[in-house]
Amino acid sequence: MVDQLLIGAILLGALVLFxxxxxxxxxxxxxxxxxxxxxxxxxxxEVFSGFGNAAVITVAAxxxxxxxxxxxxxxxxxxxxxxxxxxKAWVQMLALTSITAFxxxxxxxxxxxxxxxxxxxxxxxxxxxxxxxxxxxxAFGSLLGGTVTMIGTPSNIIVADIxxxxxxxxxxxxxxxxxxxxxxxxxxxxxxxxxRWLVPKxxxxxxxxxxxxxxxxxxxxxxxxxxxxxxxxLYELESRIKENFAVVAIKxxxxxxxxxxxxxxxxxxxxxxxxxxxDTLQQIIDxxxxxxxxxxxxxxxxxxxxxxxVVEGVVGPDSRLVGRSAADLRLRHRFGVNVLAVARQGQPVxxxxxxxxxxxxxxxLLQGDAEILTDVFRRFGCFPLAQRSMRIGAVKKLFTPLAIxxxxxxxxxxxxxxxxxxFTAAAGAMVLSNIIPLRELYENVDWPIVVLLGATIxxxxxxxxxxxxxxxxxxxxxxxxxxxxxxxxxxxLVVTLALSNIINNAAAAVLMAPIGLNMxxxxxxxxxxxxxxxxxxAALPFITPIGHQSNILVMGPGGYAFGDxxxxxxxxxxxxxxxTVPLILWFWPLGA
Length: 592
Known about the structure:
Layout: H1 2-20, H2 25-38, H3 54-72, H4 74-80, H5 89-104, H6 109-128, H7 132-145, H8 154-167, H9 177-198, E1 218-222, H10 234-240, E2 246-252, E3 255-258, E4 271-275, H11 278-288, E5 291-292, E6 308-315, H12 326-329, H13 331-335, E7 338-344, E8 347-349, E9 363-369, H14 370-380, E10 382-384, H15 399-413, H16 419-432, H17 447-465, H18 468-480, H19 485-500, H20 505-523, H21 528-539, H22 549-553, H23 555-558, H24 565-587
Antiparallel strand pairs: 1-4, 1-5, 2-3, 2-4, 6-9, 6-10, 7-8, 7-9
Helix pairs in contact: 1-2, 2-17, 3-8, 3-16, 3-17, 4-6, 5-6, 5-7, 6-7, 7-9, 8-20, 8-21, 9-24, 15-16, 17-20, 18-19, 18-20, 19-20, 19-21, 19-24, 20-21, 21-24
């Protein structure tokens, strides 16, 4: 009993830290594992056994394959079809959500959304009006699509591996398909019929506007011959003025130099196009003797040239920018990149841009050399929105990755190779065929997810070993009393759904699957329906933005607030709750 209380306290503490979000989920999971090991709840020889688990290897391989498919342009080819659907909003909604769900069945949700969000933003200018009306349904569609195959989401891979450990045989790739397709169709139809009223119309970019009005931030400063900074470099100017500002262009007679280098020496008669607030402008004028020159608003032509671009990008859930500021990262000094504006929940964040701590879902407006911007986006885990050519991997190779991917699916589905072996071999083949360069192999594995799984799998074992999973299952069965098994399944589904909305869905699957197995054992029925319920519950966190990376990715571009998600997410969750248990019992009978 003591062990049950201890593991319960550790998991409860971890859950609180997950919700608090002060530390990233992989660090929390690892700390919880180490505490459990120190208390003897996890045997010494099993503390790091999770990292050798087949499910963790499979997840890593699937992430590599997903990136290779994304990089090769496979999803781009499908997304390009969206331009042919016309300008009717309902047709665009149907097409965007359907193609997103389809791609997410085979490619990571994040990779799919990275391609589809810019498509939706482009189409919003021709028919959708406010992109916010479709971005949330697209994110939810990606989650629905993830339920269709075993590789659609890490939680499905986890559940399949837990079945292998408990009954000796894993779920197959398409064992999830019957229930997953049914729920996907139900969910998509529900969103098509109701999203017009349930999805909030936010201040996101609409058919004509961006959340930034850059002209209101830009001013011309004329350099007289008597100015003290004539002959000094922009770097020296930036070092003197500690507040945030950016020299985005310099005019010399009829010549305009966009995004001038830091070593440029200021000349008399130069006109500096400066982006700064009024207080900072006054500091510059007082310190340098420059004179205010602009009498009218400046156009965006001073921001862009053949070599220099301005690109919008969304901060990813696991971006290296999260919790840090432009000043911390020294983006201007290290990369020559200007942060021109930041939008959060569709609203521009105006003051003191250099010291804004970036959050997942923030939309940044960056100016710099096109190739350097590409590297910055890749390096820091951001996804370009307005400039499709920014996607890394412009050279499209469609046939080879599709052939490799199809071969892996067929070999594993027909039983010639196990899923971990088939997909690890496919990931290797993607590298050997140069679909994904070797240097990007490890860069595009979502290591926080891998660490999370490696740490939580032993914790799930401790939950089972201590008897806590059995006790929790008994409580759930006591609540359902003598009711049909469908009631027990419904309780398990609701609890898993609630958990997946506040912690990572893979962690929810690891923790809830042992409880489901014990519930099935207590009822003397097949474990498969209970494992399927856990898989579905873990895969569909619609109510909060923190439940899944797809939800976070659309938060900034869609201009959504935290509380906007439940308006569509809660009704959708209720509809799917009603449909899930009957569907699972239909395809996975209790006596099977």
